[in-house]
Amino acid sequence: MTQAELRLCSLLLRENFGEIVEKVGNSLLRTGPRPLRLLVGDTGLLPDQVKKALCVLIQHGLARYAPQPRGPVEYEARRERVLRILRYPRYIYTAKTLYGDPGELLVEELLLHGHLPMSAALARVAERLTETMEDGKSMDHSEVSATFVRLADTHFIQRCPVPPEVPPDAKVPPAPALAIDDKDRFIVPRLSLIGKGKRRHSCDEEEEAEHKAKRQKQEGGSSEPPPDDGIYWQVNLERFHQHFRDQALVSAVASRMDQTSSEVVRTMLRMSEVTTASGASHTQPLSSNEIFRSLPAGYNISKAVLDQYLALLADDPLEFVGKAGDSGGGTYTVSIFWGILGGFGVFWADFGIFGLILEGFFC
To answer: 21, 29, 177, 182 — which has fewest CB within 10 A?
Structure first.
């Protein structure tokens, strides 16, 4: 890790989380994986301060932990995740472009808190949207929920991994291994959403509400847990990078050929956006008939014209589109990797340039 990267990571941690988190994160970035005891000695902080800082880093995905076979749990900073804080405004703007104000605020809240239950995220966003509305109007939770479901369906947000269930008589591990099945990552829980966003109270009313909540907690009284208690959601950064990559590819096709060709490629990418892995070199094969049915409603081209465009794209030396078979009027894939490199005119064997391109589009 270069000194410039280390300095940038330190500044990002300090600006977003404060000096204590910066000290702990900086120590991990400089020295690599370390146990809690060495972190306390290196930073000069109190053990409780280091523990809280580690909780913040882990909650935001900026650090991870791993139990050792013969030794304490070790913590490790994730340099690439810290640097991606710089892209947070772009993630938020993209969500606004695709899903409007509710999408923007949902992604912003998840990035701000690291992860949140669906019910908490909906309540926060409904409240913020209500603040921007005229007096007497408020945002219904169900309206925000519809956008939340769309974000999950298109994989821009995902469930957080959870610790496995431990039988009562089993030995509790020092650090649980978090995991989640791929089939469960984007399943939205069914919630009966009844409520609307509330406007913020004055400072005095807020302080009184906080004191009341503290008194209830001290007296042992507590409200019922939300129906999605224990199910947390986070932003799927890789999905946003996949979207940026697709946008770059569509722009390259438009520059190389014309707008209609780019719209065909855009349609193919949209059809396979949730079925193609972020690091795949090709999209899933799509038939000409499927592509024709999925073209935008106002795009008036015939099936014969579409087949001509697909043939031109497949015959182009830059290989934006490849033909995979003849069934269904012909099946085609978008060549993501070589399409991007060809679209930007990158034919050098210089690994420095090659690595820079990969960092920009696939990291």
So the answer is: 182
* pTM of the model as a whole: 0.82
| Token pair for 154 | 């298109």
Phi, psi torsion values for 111, nearest 5 degrees:
-70, -35
Task: State residue 13's pLDDT score.
Answer: 96
H/E segment holding residue 35: strand 34-35
Nearest-Å Rg of the Cα atoms of the chain is: 24
Q: Which ranges in 114-236 belong to alpha helices (H)?
A: 118-131, 141-153, 203-218
Handedness of CA 328, 329, 335, 338 (dihedral sign): positive
Query: pLDDT of 198-245, one tens digit each?
Result: 655 544 444 554 555 555 445 454 567 777 888 999 999 999 999 998
List, in order, residues 6 or more apart from 266 with CB less than 8 Å away. 246, 250
Which residue, 320, 238, 336, is CA-closest to 283? 336
DSSP 3-state of 196: strand
**DSSP letter (8 states) at residue 245:** H
Instruction: Give all strands of the β-sheet with 157-159 in edge-to-edge order.
Output: 116-117, 232-235, 157-159
Tokens found for residue 224: 């019922």
What are the backbone dihedrals phi and psi of residue 97, each rounded to the nearest 5 degrees, phi first?
Answer: -65, -40
- Distance separating alpha carbons of residues 354 and 114, to the nearest angstrom: 32
Task: Delineate the domains of the chain, giving CATH numbers in brackets.
Answer: 3-77 (1.10.10.10), 86-164+176-189+231-235 (1.10.10.10), 238-362 (1.10.10.10)
Q: Say how many residues make up the chain.
A: 363
* DSSP summary character for residue 281: S
State both tokens at 284: 């899933």
Of all helices (H) and strands (E), which one includes residue 66?
strand 63-66
- DSSP 8-state code for residue 33: S
